[in-house]
Design a protein that fits this description.
twelve-stranded antiparallel β-sheet
Length: about 850
């Protein structure tokens, strides 16, 4: 049964050590210090704390911890008497004594403490408040001694620190901050400063971090260290953090009105924010009330914020993310459990502590660690920011290893919003990223250009060659030019030797027509932009060497249409003079063929060579499996719809092999859709002479030949029609066939006199061209009549109503007027209706 009453003795003394309790000690210290000071002896009050008691209990258990505490209490009794000492609770102690000799007594105490409890002890730190700083109440003197104790930073060696004038000023600042916090927020003393975060891929501001600055009307600007730790200790920092959220939201609304792009802005949250209020709900309410998208406000949390209450913090982080807020882990790498946290907590981005940049010039180890951490983040689908970037060399390195975002004084220090607007108005600002391009630049920025390390057998010190990797780069192309956005060191060395003009940030235009060897992959990148396929390049770059490279499209910019491609130089190999590769044969045939395939009939594995008809020396390689099934699948996408069924039935492995055995070749013609238009092609399959299991499949563009044959047949058919018609109406001078929809036209025949008028024999916009050309060949008195009668509306209207349209007028032929009659009618052609127009010589009838 719980006891309801305690004796005065139990209240005045600690149950474990028997020392006076804190309250009783304050009474004893008031009287004792007064007596010492009255006798001319300056008194001091000392606060003591064990270093690492929490981990001592975890290692040895709480029972062993209690033994240590009791042993230490016995030492205090020995040196300072029982009535001058106290245990405040846990591992905190205090005593008062004369100032003279206190340091020697403390050193003796520290020395003896190392031997208590069988050597299982801990370092002790102490803070000393001398009454010479002012005779204050014992409780206040104890607080000041504790402040000095807390500021002693050596966790491995016992020691002490005096409360002095500097700490007094700091204490006064404590009171000033606490007493004036609400006023500072209300009157705008606490302002938001913004430090930009730069997208590595485009150099634009993609995010901003908000930092609180206290600009006091009396004290000037207070350092964050002068007020943030105080507010965290007194659990008042949530007021500042929510004030920052309010300022961010107002800034976004103002910026939207100004027409500038808005990027996400982050706010740092303290551990105590989660303890004193429902910070998640408080932020949600503010953001929703402002009408701002939740993903525009980012929450930054450090490892220390997680603290001991892991499950609770995990729940709060998930609440933020489920509501649509992004959560970043700040100062990654500054603690010991950062990697462990990534296993159990979901972050959208990790922010690397600036200590990595401070170690940047101290060798490769820090760089390798950072590179591997970047690769880990990419694998986990997490973006990255590195803080403390201050040099161009650091910027270049971080871009190479795939750090997606950069932050530091190299770009800009934290500034108020007024400075940001001023710089934008003057055109001196870095510039905000277009939100529509965010995903594009994120995808090309996270590529680690050191992700394909060269592994050398027998090299036991591989970390020394860590950055000796394959030449890799990210290249942007608009189809006509390419620009290297990022390239690793080996790529830069490669271009210096083979492509001197290809430098980071410099635009290189792709030559038209035939070009010299050595810039083959320029066109490969351009082609990769269009089809998006992974492409291998195998071609000569000079008289002695060939390049083998790989190109893959990463993303397409939705605003500009520019595509980003990853390029890896797989090798530079000597040309073999004695042999002729299939790639070279493919290149030689590239003028005539659209596609060439090298196929293994047993495995159906294939290599596809796609020469660019405009560039005879370009050969692109692609590899794949299940050739026949893939071809039939592609037919459903790329063949002209009327030809698809015939092709898919005919192009099967068994039928191809039967045709090869019987005739030595398989051929089929069909129409491909190119730029939306059907184009005739002819496929021919033959066996390789040296290996009947391997075949070559060539797709040839025969559109011109097929259409010429069609045209000849159509002319023959339509000429017959016109000849029969002209027999009824007289002497035919000329005839035209017109598409009634597009008005594209062709002149089929013309008499000698009409031929001498030198009119266009084919073209577009028939009615417009006819009304334009007639002005130079018509008898002038008939021009107005012709223009009034010969319009598309009247011609088509008469044909619909009467079946035929006619108009008479005079043409100037051989400098004399000749009466002609223009007749127009619709006929049904095999490809649909056609408008036919005949012009007859009426004078000859």
């Amino acid at each position: 049964m719980e006891r309801l009453h305690y004796s005065q003795e139990e209240i005045n003394y600690d149950y474990l050590t028997g020392l006076p309790s804190m309250t009783y000690f304050f009474t004893l210290a008031e009287a004792g210090r007064r007596k010492m000071n009255a006798e001319g002896e300056n008194a001091v009050l000392v606060f003591l704390d064990f270093c690492g008691m929490k981990y001592f209990n975890m290692k040895y258990g709480f029972a062993e911890g209690d033994i240590l505490i009791k042993a230490f209490a016995d030492l205090l009794r020995k040196h300072f008497t029982a009535e001058n000492c106290s245990r405040f609770g846990s591992d905190h102690f205090a005593f008062f004594t004369k100032k003279d000799g206190v340091e020697e007594k403390l050193q003796k105490l520290f020395e003896e403490c190392r031997g208590i409890n069988g050597g299982k002890s801990l370092p002790v730190k102490a803070g000393i408040y001398p009454d010479s700083m002012g005779t204050v109440e014992a409780s206040l003197a104890c607080d000041r001694a504790k402040l000095a104790c807390d500021l002693y930073t050596d966790e491995y060696r016992s020691g002490y620190l005096y409360f002095d004038e500097k700490l007094l000023a700091r204490e006064n600042n404590y009171h000033y901050v606490i007493d004036n916090l609400d006023r500072a927020i209300k009157e705008g003393w606490i302002q938001a400063y913004y430090q930009p975060i730069i997208r590595a891929a485009n150099g634009k501001v993609c995010d901003e971090e908000t930092l609180a600055r206290w600009i006091d009307p009396e004290k000037g600007m207070l350092s964050p260290a002068d007020f943030i730790p105080i507010l965290e200790e007194y659990k008042l920092i949530y007021k500042v953090d929510l004030h920052m959220v309010d300022l961010i939201l107002q800034r976004m609304k103002d910026q939207e009105k100004s027409g500038l792009h808005i990027v996400p802005i982050s706010v740092n949250l303290s551990r105590t924010d989660f303890e004193v209020c429902d910070i998640v709900e408080e932020i949600r309410k503010r953001v929703d009330a402002a009408g701002i998208n939740r993903d525009m406000l980012t929450v930054e949390i450090t490892e220390s914020v997680i603290g001991d209450n892991f499950e609770y913090m995990k729940e709060q982080i998930e609440r933020f993310r489920e509501l649509g807020f992004k959560v970043w882990m700040d100062d990654f790498g500054s603690g010991y459990s950062s990697l462990d946290l990534l296993q159990d907590l979901r972050f959208d981005l990790i922010k690397f502590d600036m200590r990595f940049m401070r170690q940047f010039d101290k060798g490769d180890k820090s760089k390798i660690i950072l590179t591997e951490l970047m690769r880990m983040a990419i694998s986990l689908g997490i973006e990255t920011v590195t803080e403390g970037v201050e040099t161009e060399e650091q910027v270049e390195f971080l871009r190479e290893v795939g750090c997606t975002k950069l932050q530091g004084f190299y770009f800009c220090k934290p500034v108020p919003v007024e400075v940001i607007y001023e710089r934008n108005s003057k055109g001196t600002a870095i510039g905000f990223e277009n939100p529509e391009e965010t995903e594009y630049y994120a995808s090309i920025g996270r590529v680690n250009l050191y992700d394909l390390a060269v592994v050398s057998s027998g090299d036991t010190e591989s970390f020394k060659n860590y950055y000796d990797t394959l030449p890799m780069a990210v290249i942007e192309t608009d189809g006509d030019s390419i620009t290297v956005v990022r390239g690793n060191k080996t790529f830069r060395s490669f271009t210096e030797r083979y492509f001197d003009k290809l430098r980071v940030g410099k635009k290189v235009y792709i030559p038209k027509g035939n070009i010299n060897r050595g810039v083959i992959f320029l066109r490969a990148v351009s082609q990769c932009k269009e089809d998006g396929e992974r492409t291998f390049i195998n071609d000569s770059i000079n008289d002695e060497e060939s390049i083998h490279a790989f190109v893959r499209r990463l993303a397409v910019n939705p605003v500009t249409g520019v595509a980003a491609c990853a390029v890896v130089i797989l090798g530079i190999i000597p040309d073999k003079k004695e042999g002729v590769s299939f790639a070279r044969v493919a290149r030689a045939l590239s003028v005539d063929y659209i596609d060439l395939y090298y196929v293994d009939l047993k495995t159906e594995q294939y290599i596809k060579y796609s020469p660019d008809g405009a560039h005879a020396d370009l050969t692109l390689e692609r590899r794949g499996d299940e050739f026949f099934a893939t071809a039939r699948s592609d037919a459903a996408k790329y063949l002209y719809e009327p030809d698809r069924e015939v092709f898919t039935k005919a192009f099967r492995k068994k039928k191809v092999e039967e045709a090869l055995d019987e005739h030595g070749a398989f051929t089929i013609s069909y129409r491909l859709l190119m730029n939306g238009n059907p184009v005739y092609v002819s496929m021919k399959v033959v066996r390789m002479d040296d290996d009947p299991c391997h075949i070559v499949v060539a797709v040839n563009n025969v559109d011109a030949q097929m259409r010429q044959a069609e045209m000849i047949e159509r002319i023959r058919e339509e000429s017959t029609v016109f000849e029969r018609t002209s027999a009824l109406v007289g002497n035919l001078m000329a005839m035209y066939s017109i598409d009634p929809v597009s008005e594209g036209y062709i002149e089929y025949s013309a008499s000698g006199g009409y031929e001498r008028l030198e009119l266009a024999k084919e073209g577009e916009c028939f009615f417009e061209k006819a009304r334009e050309q007639i002005r130079s060949i018509i008898y002038p008195e008939d021009l107005e009549h012709f223009l009034e009668c010969f319009t598309r509306e009247k011609v088509m209207g008469d044909i619909e109503a009467k079946g035929v349209y006619t108009v008479d007028y005079r043409l100037m032929i051989d400098d004399r007027p000749v009466m002609v009659r223009l007749r127009a009618a619709m006929i049904e052609d095999r490809d649909g209706p056609r408008l036919v127009v005949g012009i007859n010589n009426m004078d000859a009838i």
